[in-house]
Specification:
The protein has 9 helices and 23 strands. By secondary structure, the protein is of the alpha+beta class. The strands form 5 sheets. Strands 6-5-9-3-2-13-16-15 form an 8-stranded mixed sheet, with no helix packed on it. A 5-stranded antiparallel sheet has the order 10-11-12-17-14, with no helix packed on it. A 4-stranded mixed sheet has the order 1-4-8-7, with no helix packed on it. It is globular and about 65 Å long. The protein binds tryptophan and zinc ion. The site of tryptophan (TRP) has 14 residues, from helix 4.
Length: about 475
Amino acid sequence: MPRPRSATLPPAISLALALGLTACGGTPVHGTPGAAGVRDPYFPKSGNGGYDVTHYGLTLSYDPKDKRLKGTADITAKAGQDLSAFHLDLRGMDVTGITVEGHRATWSRAGQELTVRPRKDLDKGRTFRTTVHYSGTPETITDPDGSKEGWLRTADGALALGEPTGSTAWFPGNHHPSDKASYDVRVTVPEGLQAVSNGELRSETTTKGRTTYVWHTAEPMASYVATLAIGHYDITRSTTKKGLPVYVAVDPTQAKASKKVLAGIPGIIDWEERTFGPYPFSSTGAIVDRPEDAGYALETQNRPVFPGAPDTGTLVHELAHEWYGDSVTPKSWRDMWLNEGFATYAEWLWQEDHGGDSADKIFHALYEGDYYEPVDNSEVWAFPPATPPDAAHISDPPVYYRGAMVLHKIRQLVGDKTFFAILRGWAATHRHRNADTADFTAYAENAAPDKDFTGIWTDWLHGKAKPDHP
Ligand code: TRP
Ligand code: ZN
């Protein structure tokens, strides 16, 4: 059928044509706006619907003196629907310009939602590039549980931490764990300062008193484990026995206290590879800032962040997250026990293998209420690990300890051989992807089809009360 002339079209379509609101081929406006969130049960505004990011190219500059961050975010994404508009998540900062596929776009802001209207609708399946120019003083965010994240200013620079929503403070994006992407982070700072991020350092160049560091992360990364540490750091490079690059950055005031424990990284990675399977990324390491710089350690991809020298248990825990959390990433914030239960159990296994208490002994001590760590034992039974009551409790003791106890119950049921096959197989099957509690229970059941897991799931994973028997 020949294309009708506009004079013969119904008025609404003529108007659309007059306003230039057509896609190529003369199809009238066909897209709808992408959703403002991905219905996360705990953080409904986190993430956005209608597209999937494949790559972030961030070009940033920061000067600790004026505390201002200037950024350009180049976001490559694939449309999951016909899009007339889409959301990005960004808190604070001034947006000064946005283009989509090189064409100027309009935008509006409401809280952390940055709504972008491209000049033309984007067809479903299309890969498109959005460039956001922004600047300002990035915010420190207080979590529902009261801890600080986002952009933390330190004595000599800054530290960006993103769990669960902090990455919204320093770059626009699809800030939900379900949308992982590769990253290139290019950071310019005053000469004499270091900038450390995830992945591998590609280059370091100084011109006119400013140094640019280029970091590359090829493997998929959730934005909550993206990091940036700016300041003075002592840098140590080494390799594991298998040749994996180790890049360690330590605040000079923490150098003495952390030297010995950090020298253990290659050995920990070797042990974790034997226990959990092949290391999932192209490099490892650590970032150690001062104790007052952050309230907790975080499993930032490739190199976890520590506020002050960690102990070996904490180092084992954060590095275990490279498998459980960073490579196998939760589908939603409800699935945190898949991160914290596994990383806690990794600590128990490490002790068991290195002359400390067995995991079984720790399990029973926790059950009996005489566990030796600074945790009020009654808190362990406050709620089932698979369903924290709300966003303020996603990193509470049940998620860590009772989560680890679920794994120990599985080990008791299936025996060591099958149990370690489950640990490794789970990491291998969902490598670089996302998974939830139902994926895990199905995986475990499948690995031991002759065993009955019902009691573990109902009493330990989903049950409200403390189980009647250890
Ligand atoms: N994931 C960190 C750890 O290794 C703890 C943590 C920091 C956390 N911030 C969080 C956990 C926010 C859940 C939500 O234990
Ligand atoms: Zn953890």
